[in-house]
Each structure stands twice: as C-alpha cells, then as structure tokens.
Description:
The complex is a heterodimer. In chain A, helix 4 runs antiparallel to helix 7 (about 115-150) and helix 8 packs across helix 9 (about 200-220). The two termini of chain A are about 25 Å apart. Chain A has 12 helices and 2 strands, in the order αααααααββααααα. Chain A is elongated, with a radius of gyration of 21 Å. Chain A has a two-stranded antiparallel sheet. By secondary structure, chain A is mostly helical. Chain B is of the alpha/beta class. Chain B folds into 2 domains: about 5-220, P-loop containing nucleotide triphosphate hydrolases (Rossmann fold); about 225-300, Alpha-Beta Plaits. Helices cover about 35% and strands about 30% of the residues of chain B. Chain B has 11 helices and 14 strands. Chain B has helices spanning about 45-50, 70-75, 95-105, 110-120, 135-150, 165-180, 195-200, 220, 235-245, 270-280, 290-300, and strands at about 5-15, 15-30, 30-35, 60-65, 65, 80, 155-160, 185-190, 205-210, 210-215, 225-235, 250-255, 260-265, 285-290. In chain B, strands 6-7-8-3-9-10 form a 6-stranded mixed sheet, with helices on both faces. Chain B has a 4-stranded antiparallel sheet with strand order 2-1-4-5, covered by helices on one side. Chain B has a 4-stranded antiparallel sheet with strand order 12-13-11-14, with helices on one face. The longest helix of chain B has 16 residues, at about 165-180. Chain B is elongated and about 70 Å long. The termini of chain B are far apart. The interface of A and B includes residues 109 and 295 of A.
Amino acid sequence: MLKLLRIELFKIFKRPRTYIAFGAIAAVVFLIQIALKFDGKSYVDLLMSNLSGSFEFSDEFKGKLLNGYLICFVILNTLLIQMPLLVALISGDSIAGEANMGTLRLSLTKPVSRTQYMLVKFAASIIYTLALLIWMAALALFGSMIIFGTNDMVVLRSEGIEQMKNFDVLWRYFAAFGYAAVALTTVSALSFLLSVFSENSIGPIIATMSIVIVFTILSEMNIPIYDETIKPYLFTSHMVAWKGFFYVKADAEGTTINGSIENLPAVLRSLGILVIYIILFFSSAVWVFKKKDILT
Amino acid sequence: MSSIIEVKNLTKNFKDIKAVDNLSFKVEAGQVYGFLGQNGAGKSTTIRMLLTLIAPTSGEIELFGMSLAKHRKEILRQVGAIIERPDLYKYLTALENLRLFAIMSGVKVSEKQLMDQLDMVGLAERAGSKVKTYSQGMKQRLGIAIALVHDPQLIILDEPTNGLDPQGIADIRNLILLLKKERGKTLLISSHLLSEVELIADSMIIIDKGKKLVEGKVKELFDPSETIVELKTTDDAATFEKLKQSPLNKFMHGQRNDCLLLKLHRNEVPSVMKELVQMDVNVISLHSKHSLEDYFLSLTTGNNDVEVAKN
Lengths: 296, 311
C-alpha cells in the first residue's frame, strides 16, 4: 500500500501543473504582504472605520495591530476561499485524468484492487492538500511573523473587537490550519467523487467549483427560511468554522480569557459534519468506481 | 495440454447492445492464440473482461484454472497486457514508467533488470527520454516492456501492431515468436490483420457481432490444398465469356478487384494454365492466393465482395 502511495505522490509531484497551486499561493501571499508592509496604516484605518463611531483607537494601538498574526488572518480569509479550486485541480484529475490519458486501463490490469487503488489515490490527494496548507502556513504565518513581527492579535467582529495575547495566538493558527485541512479535504473528496464519473479532468474541476460557489452563496445568504432548512446541511456552511478558533470567551468585566474558545462545541460539530461529508463522498466514489466498466 | 484461459458462455450487454454473445473458447498453455474479428466485433470487450476492466453480464472466465471473479489479484500477477494502444505517462521517462508499473505488478526489480527489459525492446538508449518524445512504435515497444516486466505467464496483446510501420510490425512479430519459443509464454493476440495472425498464431478464433464464427488450429481451419487463383488478363470481359463456355467454368468463383477468381485444387493449377493458353487467353498475371484473409472475409462479410459468376 505504501509503495502504491509513493507511486501516486511521485506522479503528482512530477507534473508541472502541480506547482501552479504552490506558485499561485506564493504570489497572493507576497502581494498581500508587500502591500501591507508599505501601506498597512491605510488598511488598518479602513478596517477600523466601521468601529470608530463607538471606539477611540490610539495610533500606538493601530501600530500594534498590524503584526504578523493579523496579516496571516487577512491572508487566510482571502485564500481559503480560493483554495478549493487549487485542491480540485489535483483531486478532479485523480481518476478522470488517468482515464483521459488512457493509463487507467493499464493500471487496473495490475494486481491491485479497485478499493485499494481509490484509497491510494485519495490519500495522495489529501497529502497534496496538506502540502499546500503547510506551504501556505509557512508563507502566510511564519513569513508574516518574520516580516511584521508578533504582538497581540485583534479580531474584528460585528459586535466589537476581540484581543488575544501574543502568547495565546500561535496554537489557534495550528488549530485553524488543521481545521482548514479537513475543510479542504471535503472539497477534495467531492472533486474525487466527480472525477469517477468523467473521462477528462476539466469536468470534475468545473463541477466542483460550481457546487462550492453555489453552496457558498446559499451559505452566505441572509434568508431566514434557509437558515434552518438548507444552511446547516451545506458543507460550505461549515468550512468557515476555522474562524471559531479566533473567537474567545470573555469574563464578566469583558476581558478575554486566555486559551478559551467561545463556542468549541459548534466548531467540533462543524468538524464532525465535514468528516461525515468526506466519508460520504469517498465511499460513494469507491462504490461507483467498483461497478464501473472501464471503456476508455 | 492445460488450459490457461477458459471462457464459458461469456455475454456482455451495453444497454440494448449485445457486444459479446455467449462466447466460449479455450487457450492452451504455450500457444499463440489469434483473436480475430473486424472492428466492433467484440474483441476488445472480451479482452477487457479477461482483464477485469469490464464486468461480464453473464458467463464464466477461468485463468490458470482459477475463477477470475474469485482470484483476481492472484491471476493478474501472472498476466501482462496491452489494451489497444499503450497509453503511458507522457511526462515521465520510459524507465520511470517501467519502474512504476513494475511496482504496481507487485514485483521487485533492479535497475539492471529494468534496463535489460528496455534493451530487449530496443529502448535502452532512450530510457531517460520522456515518453512524450517517443514515436508510436517506441510507445508500443515500451508498452510491451511494461507488459513483460513482471515476467507473466500469459500475455494479452490487443491490436499490438496498430499504427506501426512495416519494420515495427515485423519487430513485434519476432518478439511474439521469441516469447513463445524461448520463454514458453502463452499469448493471446487480437487483431483485424489476419495476415499478421496467420504468421504467428497456433490456434485462432474468429468472432463477429460478439459471436464465435469458428475456432481451431490455424493449420486445420484452412485446407491448404484448396486455393484461390486471381487471374488478370488483357480483356477480362472476353475471358469471362470464354471461361463460361469452357470446362473451366466449374472453377469459376467470382470477381474481385478487376481479377477473375478461380477456386481449385493446388495440383490443378498447371493444367488450368495450359488450358488458358490453348484458349488463347492473354494472361497478364496468375496469382495463387491462399490465406486466412479470404477465409475471414468470406465468413464475416458473407461473400459480399465476391460476385458469383457461375450460372
């Protein structure tokens, strides 16, 4: 099994297209970092403008605000929306790409069961997703920490601001990246399932993105009837729950409690739902693939 | 001799289309078995069922005396195959492709063994080149190296000479004969090029519309004493009339490609030639043609290309 996994990873990382995603992430991260390095004050002013009616912020406070942690938060907010496309590029290609190249039929004449083949393919897609996230973490988190330094982190919410102590932030990022890995694996599993039905990789990639976009729109729409009936069941509603790690509890005096998470059960519930989606998508993919006649 | 492949009442339906219809055949150990049929006859579907790429609608397949459905992995370890064209990872080199499929075949092979395999198909010098730079013939040879890398007992080649030039076809033919004679392999070769199969196969089956038309030893399927003579003269129409009025009328078999066809025993050819000279027929060429091609055409086309001239 490990040998087969090594083969899959070898194939993935030998393809030039694999590195498009890594390049795209690096480009976006560097552009944001450069922009905020040279014009961070304007960005912070804009960010605080919504709150300035009820709060007064000193320049010193604003200066502290623009640190590596906040920059990483900004980058994550921007990039995690685009990441599904990058993940789908590889997962959507997993089976459909092999069918398109004609290598699927040769691979399936080898003494490897179809379930084993699918497990290895999916595991390789997950490893690729993790590699992307680690790359992103290295650039967005550690890169920003080096360029901008660290300080207390402030998160803006509709009801106000939350301030986390410097020492209380890094673990939250690790948790958020871990959560993002599960969220992106859900997209990967969806794309993988669609890949089984297609004989070229464009179809599953476009279909995955279409589903993610439509579901995201539905998740974001403020229509009361959808709040109870549709939104809780859309995986996209739960993909953004990584932000929960940055929402902290406060004591009676309004001081944030270090190491706390405002609504951990909600975050864990969302995580559970995503895991259920992954199992559902993957097992459906295996079930369909095992019955499929290979005609390409 | 033991059977390596035994197919019993195999049927495959694609919705309303019966691609393979109650097909049964056996391939004995150490044979080259020709699997013949026109395009769309059901050859590739059958081969895909032998390789578990397609599930049969009904029927049984046994390879090496084991049920394919129950012992898939065990059986496929002993099978090497090319299905239609050898599509490979174009962005990888020949050596990388070979190594990758060797691992998938469950065998541990050294770099030297891989290079020996490439050497056998004449690709050792291009081992480090990416497959996208290969010609069709080179890809075909690499496909064969991949099919053989785990030293299988049974080799299944679906249209192995497709897209090859005459030299490439000859190379593949020689390789097939070498595998049979020197390595004792069993080979199932599908083709629509009967002249190719005729040269290499011990036994053969001809299928059409998914059904078996005929199966047997190549030598026995065709009586070598019966021959078709293609007669080309300066005036075919006049010759046609002359022959109709002569005792040679009994040999008249039809017309094809501006030739008159005579069907006769090989020993009768000299006397027929003498008779033609006596009848003052100006013969341009007289070609004795006897191959499975005629047999195949007559079976699968229902003699459509032969106008029977006898009254």
